[in-house]
Amino acid sequence: MKYSLFVTCPKGIEGLLFEELTQLGAGLCKETVGGVFCEASLENIYQLCMWSRLANRVYLSLFKGTVKNTQDCYRLCSQYDWSKLFKLNSTFSVNFSGHSDFIRNTVFGAQLIKDGIADNLRRTLKRRYDVDTKNPDCRVHARLHHSILSVYYDLSGHSLHQRGYRKYGGEAPIKENLACALLIRAGWRALCKNKLPLIDPLCGSGTFLIEALMMATDKAPGLDRFDYGFINWQGHDSDLWKKVQKEALFRHEHAMEESLPFIFGFDKDQEVIKSAEKNIHAAGFSGMIQIRHQLLREFSLPSECKEKIGLIIANPPYGERLEESADLIPIYQQLGLALNQHALNWKAAIFTSDPQLAKAIGLRSHKNYSLLNGTIPCKLYLFDLNKENRLSLAEKG
Fold first, then answer.
1. How many whole angstroms separate alpha carbon 5 and alpha carbon 340?
2. Which of 28, 37, 176, 233 has its CA 20 to 30 A from that of 257?
């Protein structure tokens, strides 16, 4: 049996998600803003939830219809047989997006859908299902767009970007799936296969470092998660899910037996370093990622990397206001100087929201990608640090 899905992701990485879903066995993939529509078998669904490094949520398409008023919305939801979806005594919540002339408030829209579901369950099963907005067993997502109400069941539960290891965050931590997308764009997949090193000179809570090692050790992003939305779905097959879990564990354990690339993180803040070390431990990578206290102006390649060529990736701070960005220019200048002096023939990837800050690096970017970090438009700038791409004497001074 094939299920119709809508898999969501951060805006700007839909193309990468399309490729990933295809590789994981999904069919009839079609990109749209913020996600990909596709079809998948039950085993493919489990593979998506276990292995997708880029998705936010995996939505199972339930039904859709044209609605002209609130009564149409309520009627559409109250007529669906929800008893074939929710297991007995499950709690549920409703998330609503979109608006129209008759629904201007997402809270009102969610309440309308909830009433239709609750009334249907009360009528068909003669029992009440409780709403739990904080930690429900089952999550329903409704989207109203151009008078079409589409209703989905959330198979993922909590967003898939939440791997479970990030117990401690830095000042502005980047989401795990966005970090993974940036690593892919920077060419880390090929580099880690060749056991080449990765360095983050501004590592913060360590997200780049952990995601990079998860890719290098073939660790499924969902391996440590146990709170999926499909657990309380009537269509769940626990034996098949255990099979997918067992296969993912085997792949990771096998990869851990091989030699691994050196991965280093530096930061100026000792407390932030402690947080990164705790996150690394929670991810199961204690002793496999080296974190050191170091100012950016003191940057140099670790001795383990002196004879190698690898990737330097960073998410430096960037201000939302012009005056904030001006204060950050020295950080980008120091970053450019560090790359120029110590990383000849390496690759670099810098993620920022401000083109002027990127320009302050002083090196030529051969390619950039536009993405959103939350709601902030950003770009990933890629650099080949070869002999032709060097700072001038004036920039050095």
1. 46
2. 176
d(CA 96, CA 64): 14
Asked if residues 80 and 123 have their Cβ atoms less than 8 Å apart, the reply is no
Nearest to 361 by CA among 330, 393, 326: 330
> Model-level pTM?
0.94
Tokens of 44: 């493919």
- 177-193: pLDDT as tens digits: 999 999 999 999 999 99
DSSP result, 78-134:
HSS-GGGTBPTT--EEEEEEE--SS---HHHHHHHHHHHHHHHHHHHHSS---B-SS
Q: How many residues comprise the chain?
A: 397
Query: CATH number for the 176-218+257-396 domain, one of 2.10.70.10, 2.30.140.10, 3.40.50.150, 3.40.50.2000?
Result: 3.40.50.150
pLDDT digits (tens, 9 = 90+) for 317-366: 987 655 567 789 999 999 999 999 999 999 999 999 999 999 999 999 99
Q: Does domain 3-154 have CATH number 3.90.550.10?
A: no
Residue 73 CA to residue 10 CA, distance in Å, equals 28
